[in-house]
Amino acid sequence: MVPARFGPELLLLARCSERCPVSLVKIALPAALLILAGGCSRTGEIDTSSGVGITSLRSPCPHVGVPAGTGDITTFDPPASREAQAIDVTATLTNVTAVCDDGADMVNTVVSFDVQARRASAEGARDVTFPYFVTVVRGGASVIAKRIGHVTVHFDAGQIRASAKAEASAQVSRAAATLPADVRERLNKKRKAGEQDAAMDPLADPAIRQSVLSATFEALVGFQLTDEQLKYNVTR
Predict the structure, then answer these.
(1) Distances from the Cα of 231 to the Cαs of 8, 9, 74, 131, 225, in angstroms?
(2) How many structural domains compose the chain?
(3) CA angle, residues 116, 122, 124, in degrees to nearest 5
(4) In this predicted model, what pLDDT tens digit does every residue of 208-232 receive, in sequence order?
(5) What whole-number distance in Å separates Cα of residue 218 and Cα of residue 139?
(6) 3-state class of 11 per DSSP?
(7) Which structural domain range is residue 104 located in?
(8) β-pair partners for 184
(9) pTM of this prediction?
(10) Distance CA 37, CA 45 (A)
């Protein structure tokens, strides 16, 4: 999985509680919503015979990614300084992958990732613990769940680089992630050139678009940042 392409407004996820006001978490939805938005397992192909154009297989598994601005963390010594020479430890959340089990009523996604860290001084052995979050976003506008975890990176004496692996899980209701039958019928309806509705995008109908949005979920992971760390990531 690649980091999600979301705007800076998602930085506020790093300090939201389990439920945030919609205005705080407006998310640009993936382009896949232009057809039938899929999850962590989807395929697509050009269909020249059915009249649909592009077809895709939709999964209830959520999209997985890292919100922009939350994939890095920097600590300083002294903590109040923001000078380059005061940087103590930096870390990056990378190699994000997901395994989704959609065989039950609750779809469970396990998100795995690496934390690669670097410290300024190689003196002595040292453990550094970083907080991270996993949050479930529905319809590109609502944070419906959030959990906080911690991952510890161990530096051996004489080493300035170290890494650790971590994972988090997210659950989504299969029923909530499934499109209603009438919406699926509208989206999958064959349209042939020359017919009245051939050029009409089903998602132009607000009701259809809202139904697709409501059934679309994202599982997002990132570092749990302080206000100062958020500001540093945005302005550096």
Answers:
(1) 11, 12, 11, 17, 9
(2) 1
(3) 110
(4) 676 777 788 999 999 999 999 999 9
(5) 8
(6) helix
(7) 8-235
(8) none
(9) 0.71
(10) 14
Are residues 90 and 116 in contact, defined by beta-carbon separation less than 8 angstroms? no
The residue length of the chain stands at: 236
Distance of CA 17 to the CA centre of its chain: 17
Q: How many CA atoms does the CB half-sphere of 218 hold within 13 Å?
A: 29
Q: Indicate whether 1 belongs to any domain.
A: no
Q: Is residue 66 part of a domain?
A: yes
Asked if residue 162 is part of any domain, the answer here is yes
Look at residues 145, 135, 138 and name the one whose alpha carbon lies nearest to residue 214. 138
Q: 222 is written with which tokens?
A: 């990132």
Question: Does a structural domain hold residue 46?
Answer: yes
- Amino acid code (one letter) for 78: P
- Tens of pLDDT, residue by residue over 76-131, are 999 999 999 999 999 999 999 999 998 899 999 999 999 999 999 999 999 999 99
Q: What token pair was written down for 119?
A: 């410290």
What does the angle CA 29 – CA 34 – CA 39 come to, to the nearest 5 degrees?
60
